[in-house]
Each structure stands twice: as structure tokens, then as C-alpha cells.
Amino acid sequence: MKIDNVENLVKQALIKNISARDDDHLLYIEVVYIIDPGLVNVNFMMNFKNARQLGLPPFESVSRARRKLQEKYPELRATSKVEKARQEKQIEFEEYAKT
Fold this sequence. Notes:
The protein is an all-alpha fold. The protein has helices at 3-16, 24-35, 44-49, 51-54, 59-72, 80-98.
């Protein structure tokens, strides 16, 4: 799936479900629902193992698209509590990467 398509799906999901702005797992479920509502009730393992054949984007692509969109559109950002936690995790990861 092309990244432009992933970004459009993620934007739709962020607009539709405010809670998805705070939680990438919920966001992924919303994206899957937009693609095919029937897939949200399918076995988790089956969806992940067959993601490409089902037309599902990689989880990482959804997360990256969310970060890009939230940077570009402040109205789609997470709550301040979640934003702060994400910033702290970023600092923690940067410290980890230095070692």
C-alpha cells in the first residue's frame, strides 16, 4: 500500500475517533475498519500474517503517518498528557541509542 494511501486512511481515522489520537493500537483498528469493517472481528494473527494480501498497511507505517499528520495538523494531536509521555519516551530512546 502506498504511503499516500496510508496517510489518507490515518487522517480519516484521526478525525473520526479522537481516542485514536492517543493510542496507535486503537488507530490501527480504526484504519483496518475503514479498509474493511469485517476484518476487525477476524483473528488478530490471521490479519497480521496476511496483511499484505488483505490490503492492510504495516503497523509502523500507520504510526509514522500519525506522527507526520499530528505535526502538520495541531487539531489532530494527542492530549497534552500523551504528548508529554511521547516526548519523554523519545528522550529515553535517544539516550538508549547513544549506548
